Amino acid sequence: xxxxxxxxxxxxxxxxxxxxxxxxxxxxxxxxALFLGLICGGRSIEFLHHHQKKGQPIREDGPxxxxxxxxxxxxxxxxxxxxxxxxxxLLLANLLNPMVWxxxxxxxxxxxxxxxxxxxxxxxxTANAMTAKMKLVLQFLTALAAVLVISYYTAPENRxxxxxxxxxxxxxxxxxxxxxxxxxxxxxxxxxxxxxxGLDGLAGGLLVVAFAFFAVIAxxxxxxxxxYFYIRALPNMGEVAIVCAAVVGGCxxxxxxxxxxxxxxMGDTGSLSLGxxxxxxxxxxxxxxxxxxxxxxxxxxxxxxxxxxxxxKRTGKRVFKMAPIHHHFEQCGWAETTVVLRFWIVALGLSIxxxxxxxxx
Length: 361
Prior knowledge:
It is a single chain. By secondary structure, this protein is mainly alpha-helical. It has one domain (21-295, 338-358). It is built from 15 helices and two strands. The radius of gyration is 20 Å and the shape is globular.
């Protein structure tokens, strides 16, 4: 909005064009979302406290310590991230770029699904609200719409390509099989982040690392710099870096209040929507495999749950002491902050490994 207004007025001025480039707007988007989060966070938490007398219901089959330390903490804090990031995006992104609107649509539709789930949880005080089948149907329908729109606005030579990281010109054309594959990526990322949201600061910190990584990828592949790196050039994808930067700012502002001991939880409102947005951006940038590398913690969390459920149904025994896997380490005696910091460190290492894809032969 602000970008389009300024560009229409001063777009022909070289000095203003320099200030309106992607890196400058990405930095501004980060700080706008961050400051809005810090300013509005306290009042948002008070509002949630007022309307959630008992806070988020804590799983009785989870770590017993959580029943004491986390009881009464409000959820739906993801609204703070979605709101601040959306304001920054609307102000500083080029709203004539359809990919910006796809990002906003995915983020808010998944956010509404998560909000509905959180609302039932806090009003009925149950840890299980919306059925898994209902969630998946809504997630996959939204993912289908997003993938079709993205494919429509992607150049034909890249439309159904699956990029192989660490090789500039190596890619597989999946034809229309790409559509269901991309749907699984979006829905899978959504649920992977959702499963990671179980400890104070864990999901928020992991999302900061992942979105910061994809901000760099979007900026490089969306401009002239792609020719100098082992990455496919995708015109007009530079604006996605603004979206990523805004979400990073929103997550950092949220972490101010979500740091141990958390004053508010992200809830499904935030985790489902931000995970879906992360998957959508990976699909836009044709870096689905790279998402699995950089988001390795999210993948590990999801796989740990699938292994636990599968093996328990088959044998009646557990592979892990508790799933998702962050709870397993808690049960092994790790302090909550230790688990969170070590998972952050692993995520940072994976993002560096992902950056090597830009320069590896």
